[in-house]
Amino acid sequence: MNIANIYNAKAEFDQTRKWLDKAHDLASKISLGETSSILSLNIEGELYQLQGEHHKAIDIFNIAIDLADKEVINESLMQSLSLISKSQRALASKGSEIDIKDIFKIEDLRNKQDDLRSKLVNKLDYKSLQVLLDKEIEIHYRDIKQAEIDKERSTIIKWASAIILLFILVLIGTAIYLKSEKTTYETKVRKVRDLLNEG
Question: From CA 182, how far away is CA 151, in angstroms rounded?
Fold first, then answer.
């Protein structure tokens, strides 16, 4: 459907039709959700609209509108309403008769969608949302600060471990050196004793 929409925008209507047919074929094999079905119908209706076939476009948009859930904020429905109004205006500008009931039906549906949006906005408590947003920002920065502290600790632990390891290696090296020096000293002392004992 998206590909069909792209070809529609480029005014390559044969390609649009080809991809819409593929979409319809696929839709007959699987169950499309409401949004996908309406999107497909809107693209098809717009195909007719762009070719000046406004009566066909209106028929398709009406099918989309009938499918749409009108009790919730519905962006797909809003698109259908906008597109059907465009075709109605195009027909009216050419002097074609438009049933006034159809125009009022579309306007009523658009007003209902606007009312649903207004109710949603009125239900939102902006102060509560601001407090929640501030809290989320505070938590985010606290997490970042904690991550930096953890990283710093990790670096300190790595350096401390390296220093301790180096210290242990120096101790082992010193112990080996001292043992070797002691052994050399004892060997020399033994030789001196042996020489003194012989004499």
Answer: 46
